[in-house]
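Recall from the previous chapter that SMILES is a line notation for molecules. Here it describes pyridoxal-5'-phosphate.
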Amino acid sequence: MHKHHSALGLAIAHRPVQPVTLIRPHAASRAARFFVEKFPGRSMYAVKANPSPELIRVLWESGITHFDVASIAEVRLVARTLPEATLCFMHPVKAEEAIAEAYFTHGVRVFSLDSLEELDKIMRATNGAADLTLCVRIRVSSDLSKLSLASKFGAGPGETKALLIAARQAADALGICFHVGSQAMSPDAYAQAMERVRTAIVEAGVTVDVVDVGGGFPSSYPGMEPPPLERYFATIHRAFESLPVSYSSELWCEPGRALCAEYSSLIVRVERRRGDELYINDGAYGALFDAAHIGWRFPVRLLREPESHAKPVEYSFYGPTCDDLDHMAGPFELPADVRAGDYIEIGMLGAYGSAMRTAFNGFGSGETIEVADEPMTSLYESAPERELPANVVTL
Ligand SMILES: *Cc1c(COP(=O)(O)O)cnc(C)c1O
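With both inputs in hand, we obtain:
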């Protein structure tokens, strides 16, 4: 892997023709240490947000030992990358073959479910195993989050009691889990969900060993600056302490976005300007899926020296494919004098960015380069810029 000290230095010195993915292991490491030290329970990384093996290793080295996996390919990937990691299979609808391979080949013991059919499937696939931790996923509101996860999964109020009782009988340890939706903009999302957990426990009258508050922890994007994560942790801790669970029960969370959003960004080149529309060399089929399809806004900055002092203007972007859908409405704020040949850094693409990349229309390859400068925004306390060690190859 090539390394460079900064995004700006790289763009100026190398004028890359292809988009370049920048990775910042120090940012992912800082996020992981933050969760490990401050979340009042166990933090596991939701691999789907960014399945890069380099990232998974950085998180492991920073104290994340548990990984939320959702497919057999993710199980195999983490098992291969980190043989000592603990895997939790948290997709509530799994293939029976995937459950069997996870259990018998990879030692997975934690599974989530949201129906009696899935419970039967898990028991069949594991030959009636007696050492399972079964986490019942309940449906909670996504109203306080930017991306809903409220329709597809989760047992409803009418189904939860029977499912908890049945899972209690089958499980060695019983958990309740939920997901408040991605990018939850208020800690209240978790407080409300924990009330649902309380009702479920009281109605079913079961002993619960694990409460898993899922993902949804936010990152910082233009127009979406969330409260500090400490407030989320305090709210969750308070709610957990007041639940009717045993003294030895555990609190878990499954952050995806919050652990990796700051890990990576992208350098793109402007190939053409048409009014306030910039034609750039990555887009909807590359790392900008969310910018195109759900109108997500990412921070941007012009990488030019000397720096432009033109007044800021709002732009939209077109990606490189021939498809009208390859359009990112933004708005993205950049100096008024942006022109073809300029380089732009698009930040906060570590979560749900590179994970979505395709090779459609012949675009999509490009280098990945490690940089040591700071991400464009950070939710974690900023550290001084690191010096690169002397043995680092600079491009
Ligand atoms: C996607 C997902 C996560 C991660 O969600 P973020 O919003 O990225 O934190 C965690 N758990 C489950 C079950 C998921 O599906």
